[in-house]
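Morning!

This is the sequence you dropped in the shared folder:
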Amino acid sequence: MAPTDEQLVEAFQAGDVSAFDLLVSRWDRKIQGAVYRVVGQTEDVRDIAQEAFLKAYRALPLFKREAKFSSWLYQIALNLCRDRLRRRRRSLAEVSLDLLSESGELPLATSGPSAVELAEASELARTVGSAVWALPEEQREVIVLKEYQGLTFQEIAEVLGLPVSTVKTRLYRGLGVLRECLEQKGIRNPAPVPAPAP
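The structure's back. C-alpha cells below.
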C-alpha cells in the first residue's frame, strides 16, 4: 500500500530525502495543471511548478502538519502564480511607446499556445478555457481548484486562507459569470467543464 502524503512528509522530516521525490511524482501533474489554468501560458507552467516544489523542499523541514500537505503545496503554487501575474501586468503597463505601430495599436502578442496545441485542443475546451481565464483572479482560482483539481471547499479554504463561505460565494459567482459568458457564445450546460490539457 502506498504511503500517504503525511507519512512521506514525516519520513522526509526524519531524514529520508527520497520521500520528497515521491511527493513530487504524486503532485507534479496536478500542480502543473492548476498553474496552467491560473496563469494561462504554457511557457510559465514548468518554471512555476519547479519553483513551487523547490520552495516546498526548503520549507518542508519546518512544516507543522497543521494543514494537509496538498493544501500547503497548492498555496505555494498559487502565490507564485499571483506573483507572475502581477509581474506580467506590470510589464504590460510599462510597454514602451516605441512598440506602437504607425496605426497606434500594439502588435499582437506572440506568446500563448502554439499552433500544434491549438490544433490538438477541442473548440469547446478552448472556448471554456478562455472564458475561465477571463474571470477575475479570485473567482478563477476557486474554479480551478474545485472544478479542475477536485479539491473540497474546506481544502480550498485552507489553500486560500479564506472562510468556506467565501470560497462557496466566489465559486458560485464565478460559475454564474462563466455560464453567462458561454451562453453568449452559444454554449449551454457544458457539463462536465472540459479541461484544456497543460
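Headline: The chain has nine helices and no strands.

More detail when I'm at my desk.
O.
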